[in-house]
Amino acid sequence: MSGKVCGFKARNGWQCDQQAGESGLCYWHDPNVDKRHHDVKADVEAWAASGRPLDGFQLARTNLTDIHLVNRGNKQGYSCQGADFYRANLTEAHCFGLDLRNASLMKANLLRANLNCTHLDGSNLLGADMARTGLENVDWGEQFKQERLAFLEKDPSRRQSLFQESEEVCRNIRKQCEKQGLFDVAGYFFKKEMRFRRYQMPTFSFQRALSKTVDLFCGYGEDPLRVVIFSVLVIVSCALAYFALGTTQANPIYPDLTGVEARFYELLNALYFSVVTFTTLGYGDITPSGFARFIAAFEAFLGSFTMALFVVVFVKKMTR
């Protein structure tokens, strides 16, 4: 062993002060040191309790069953950014509030572990066993590792593979959240899962275009507000078309108005007629003329479909 200090430096500037081996890294930060047969749980707990970060720790395949990494009495959990827990046994681990940003939990055993309030932005959760894992109030971040790499990847086959992995990660999280009654989180990851599936489709294909339309239209059945916004856009667009093409009113309400006021009330009539047509009420006091009839027929069809879809999406959302 040399007298050199470990060359690991965290993103926040923290420098490890442990003695380095031949690789220039210490026991904890050297990925080439096989720790699978080492009993490191107590040492890792002691390191965290000393106030030093666990950033960059290489703990692949280690047995960390029931490890306690909760920073008691402090709102901010221990920092474990960029750590490697590949295939580590974290069964019943206590990780409340742990900062696991950019960490690898790939194929880790997280059975009955407590990940409540953890930070997982940029982490790798591919193949992680999260059966009965506590996932309440988790800060999932903007992107997981595979998602972030996929949008940067230039090679089509590699990008396809990364999107498949991203879909698998989201599906796994969604299923676990559904089992725990975290339906809002499950809905969020269902949308991400469907989007990653769409990204795997040929760019110029009917399937991808249809998937994109469903996403924009209703967020894959998870966003009723999008249906409402779409409905308002259809009503306003058709109202402008009726105003431009003209409609016929059986009994004009304001026969004496002229100029700007008359045009304004014509616009209101067009908007009223558009709402009546979209909702398929069809009072008959105003009728379209010319090409506006075809627009009215299309709006009526679209309105009946959209309202039925809204009921389905809304009920699905509320009955959870």
From TrEMBL:
Keyword hit for Transmembrane: yes
InterPro entries associated with the record: 5peptide_repeat, K_chnl_dom
Record-linked Gene3D superfamilies: 1.10.287.70, E3 ubiquitin-protein ligase SopA
Keywords for the protein's UniProt record, in alphabetical order: Membrane, Transmembrane, Transmembrane helix
Disulfide bond as UniProt keyword: no
Bilayer-spanning residue ranges: 227-245, 266-284, 290-315
Every Potassium channel domain range: 232-319
Pfam family, one: Pentapeptide
Protein name: Potassium transporter Kef
Organism expressing this protein natively: Salinivibrio kushneri
Lineage: Bacteria, Pseudomonadati, Pseudomonadota, Gammaproteobacteria, Vibrionales
